[in-house]
């Protein structure tokens, strides 16, 4: 038990933290709220003081003082998919760091779990702002008809004239993946796309097209998949390897299926066909062969989204759209073409 936790001792306040760190209480508040204009050394000193004093900000006291609930409502479409699920977890971590809590509602096409039901449930909790993880255009279309006047941010790859948006730059990630294949010498690169109702899938397909166009290469219609490794397996089982030396799959799960389907036909990856995925799943580096893919930094995305939401709550100006740069992870599933 620490000194601050002993029975009868008053819990440390934000002013105690400020005294220990040698800063003002407003600086401590800005650090807790994730304010970007704090010097790294100052931020680190404040965080050390918070840890040393075992300081926990009282959400009740903060709510009474600011007339806020310190709670962000999150609507999540397709929460079982890797991207939406990872984004939600990143938001939860960023919110805790900023002294906020998250109330999440999973939406679907069922009337009892639609956008209107989710908004009603979150508004009833008095949330200060709304974050929408809306990977599909259909879910965002429903949101536009049920706005509640709250500061709203949507996680999607495209800017929006009505709401703040933030995302990992999907088009840039796809272009980096395809340019890597082009630099290796590939000239016939096919795309296994995700469902085209998904913003990310459309942006990745556009990045594939743009990279091929920039290199003066032929663009054939992509095959549209459903994100699953089973679909990738079916694609790899029927791919005409004589007309394609590389595959850019819109996610790692479909890429895994592609490799499996090719391997069963005796087609070597990357000797005969190179394969690139997108997401960098935790197991992607353990695929056989380890998968070249595009990593999305969801932690940075969550922190960015929280900065924008807090600025909107505080009435401060912030860019209407901001994005996180992805990172190409080079592994053994890509190589120069043999022929």
Automatic annotation (TrEMBL):
Keywords: DNA-binding, Transcription, Transcription regulation. PROSITE patterns: HTH_LACI_1, HTH_LACI_2. InterPro entries: HTH_LacI (IPR000843), LacI/GalR-like_sensor (IPR046335), Lambda_DNA-bd_dom_sf (IPR010982), Peripla_BP_I (IPR028082). GO terms for molecular function: DNA-binding transcription factor activity; transcription cis-regulatory region binding. Coiled coil: none annotated. Residues 12-66 form the HTH lacI-type domain. It holds the Pfam family LacI. The keyword Transmembrane helix does not apply. It comes from the Bacteria. SMART domains: HTH_LACI (SM00354). SUPFAM superfamilies: lambda repressor-like DNA-binding domains, Periplasmic binding protein-like I. This is LacI family DNA-binding transcriptional regulator. It comes from Agromyces seonyuensis.
């Amino acid at each position: 038990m620490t000194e601050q936790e002993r029975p009868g001792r008053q819990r440390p306040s934000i002013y105690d933290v400020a005294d220990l760190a040698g800063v003002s209480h407003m600086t401590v508040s800005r650090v807790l709220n994730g304010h970007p204009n704090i010097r790294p050394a100052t931020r680190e000193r404040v965080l050390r003081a918070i840890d040393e004093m075992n300081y926990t900000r009282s959400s009740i006291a903060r709510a009474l003082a600011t007339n806020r609930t310190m709670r962000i409502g999150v609507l999540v479409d397709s929460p079982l998919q890797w991207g939406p699920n990872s984004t939600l977890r990143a938001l939860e971590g960023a919110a805790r760091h900023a002294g906020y809590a998250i109330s999440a509602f999973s939406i679907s096409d069922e009337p009892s779990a639609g956008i209107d039901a989710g908004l009603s449930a979150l508004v009833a909790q008095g949330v200060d702002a709304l974050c929408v993880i809306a990977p599909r255009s259909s879910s965002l279309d429903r949101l536009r008809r049920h706005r509640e006047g709250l500061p709203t941010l949507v996680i999607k790859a495209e800017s929006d004239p009505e709401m703040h948006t933030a995302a990992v730059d999907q088009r840039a990630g796809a272009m980096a993946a395809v340019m890597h294949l082009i630099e290796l010498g590939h000239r016939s690169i096919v795309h296994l796309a995700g469902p085209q109702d998904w913003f990310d899938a459309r942006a990745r397909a556009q990045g594939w097209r743009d990279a091929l166009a920039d290199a003066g290469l032929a663009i054939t219609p992509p095959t549209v998949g459903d994100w699953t490794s089973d679909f990738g397996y079916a694609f790899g089982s029927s791919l005409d390897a004589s007309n394609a030396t590389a595959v850019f799959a819109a996610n790692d799960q479909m890429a895994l299926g592609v490799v499996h389907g090719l391997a069963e036909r005796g087609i070597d990856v990357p000797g005969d066909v190179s394969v690139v995925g997108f997401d960098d799943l935790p197991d992607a580096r353990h695929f056989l062969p380890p998968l070249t893919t595009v990593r999305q930094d969801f932690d940075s995305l969550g922190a960015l989204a929280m900065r924008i939401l807090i600025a909107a709550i505080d009435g401060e100006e912030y860019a209407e759209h901001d994005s996180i740069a992805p990172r190409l992870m080079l592994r053994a599933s890509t190589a120069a073409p043999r022929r």
